[in-house]
């Protein structure tokens, strides 16, 4: 149980300006200023993916789930005559269960890409994918500490900004607009569009070779982005990787130009690299400069094997963990967090920057299929949660969706989302900058 408490407490300490020394015990020791009542459940000693029945309890107008408690009639915490505060619910065990990815590690449910599917998650089963439940647990603990120490506990901010935004761009395709958009144009008899796209391709300026356009959009926001380049061109089990060669001098030039302008470069690990450290390292070395961050193609994160791969290769962070099927909080947390090593029962040194929204999620035939005008209203409640907890919003917008030949209305949606964030006074940071601030 010590590893469980240490893991949760580590993240709690990074959210708030806390008293030092801080007396918090996981157990009723009769001495500490804050004492958390541990669960009597043996669930975390086993290997089942999901606990049994959960209960729901109100916290300041929001009903949140508890996985290892039964009697909800008690108050969240009480203070005795000596000033000690007793937390009556095991928010530590519930926080650990969600944040560590326990359900993914022990579940056998996988989709066609060996990903843990949204349909099998407790977030889907109980309808809280857009609520960062772990943040609520830690907020309750913050209130208990505030009461015990008789002082306000203030949140840590982002260089003075109330919340952070990471604008990230996976570079899968930059040579295929002429084919993807040109073929339908030809079939529909739109020869003018077909020949324009073909001419762009022949002159080396495919409509998706648009790094300058993406950089210009970021410049309008006074933001720096994180670009994940995909270094593999061969298909994998019939699935496509990049349509470009990252070693091509033109691509290398663009990578260096983006980096010189202050943008961050990361590697976009190809199909299968989540369980193949040698291949991932080979791809990483194809980039013209050192990189410390990764996101896997198709968000292919193997809950059992991938954390060890990232740790073995010394990555500072990964930013894969979001459900492709739905926006929200895959680990029910709106801040960066450290991965957990279940094999050794310890916290991994690798940070995870949660992915909250991917453009493909909005229009893929298997996903949400939201009309453009419904996107911002749909995601606003999620964004409000991030703002409330001074968290981080990570957006993935592929370069092709800045063009007219990708996601319908893609550029306008990107502008609407980032405009909303600007109005709420976000700070724009690269993924690496965010990780540096929380380390």
UniProtKB/TrEMBL annotation:
InterPro entries, per database record: DUF7033, Glyco_hydro/deAcase_b/a-brl
The organism's place on the tree of life at top rank: Bacteria
One BP term from GO: carbohydrate metabolic process
Domain DUF7033: 87-174
Protein name per its UniProtKB record: DUF7033 domain-containing protein
């Amino acid at each position: 149980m010590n590893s469980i408490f240490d893991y949760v407490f580590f993240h709690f300490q990074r959210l708030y300006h806390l008293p030092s020394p801080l007396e918090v015990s996981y157990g009723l020791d009769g001495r500490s200023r804050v004492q958390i009542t541990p669960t009597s459940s043996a669930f975390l000693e086993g290997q089942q993916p999901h606990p049994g029945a959960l209960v729901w309890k109100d916290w300041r107008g929001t009903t949140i789930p508890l996985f290892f408690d039964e009697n909800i009639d008690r108050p969240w915490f009480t203070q005795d005559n000596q000033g000690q505060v007793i937390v009556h619910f095991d928010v530590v065990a519930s926080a650990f269960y969600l944040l560590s990815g326990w359900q993914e590690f022990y579940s056998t449910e996988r989709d066609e890409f060996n990903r843990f599917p949204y349909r099998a998650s407790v977030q889907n089963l109980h309808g809280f994918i857009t609520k960062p439940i772990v943040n609520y647990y830690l907020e309750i603990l913050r209130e208990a500490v505030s009461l015990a120490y008789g002082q306000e506990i203030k949140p840590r901010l982002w260089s003075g900004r109330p919340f952070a935004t990471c604008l990230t761009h996976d570079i899968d395709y930059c040579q295929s607009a002429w084919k993807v958009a040109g073929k339908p144009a030809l079939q529909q008899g739109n020869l003018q569009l077909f020949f324009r796209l073909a001419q762009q391709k022949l002159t080396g300026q495919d409509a998706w070779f648009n790094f300058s356009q993406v950089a210009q959009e970021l410049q309008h926001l006074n933001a720096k982005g994180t670009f994940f380049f995909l270094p593999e061109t061969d298909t994998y089990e019939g699935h496509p990787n990049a349509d470009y060669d990252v070693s091509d001098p033109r691509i290398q030039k663009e990578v260096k130009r983006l980096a010189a302008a202050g943008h961050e470069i990361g590697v976009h690990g190809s199909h299968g690299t989540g369980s193949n450290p040698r291949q991932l390292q080979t791809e990483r070395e194809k980039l013209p400069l050192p990189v410390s961050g990764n996101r896997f193609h198709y968000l292919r994160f193997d809950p059992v094997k991938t954390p060890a791969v990232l740790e073995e290769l010394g990555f500072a962070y990964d930013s894969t963990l979001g459900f492709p099927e739905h926006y929200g909080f895959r680990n029910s947390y709106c801040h960066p967090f450290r991965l957990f090593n279940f094999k050794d029962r310890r916290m991994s040194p690798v940070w995870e920057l949660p992915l909250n929204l991917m453009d493909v999620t909005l229009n893929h035939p298997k996903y949400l299929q939201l009309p453009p005008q419904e996107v911002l209203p749909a995601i606003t409640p999620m964004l409000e949660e991030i703002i409330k907890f001074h968290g981080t919003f990570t957006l993935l917008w592929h370069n092709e969706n800045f063009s007219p030949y990708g996601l319908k209305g893609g550029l306008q949606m990107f502008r609407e989302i980032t405009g909303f964030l600007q109005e709420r006074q976000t700070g724009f940071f690269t993924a690496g900058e965010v990780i540096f601030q929380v380390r």
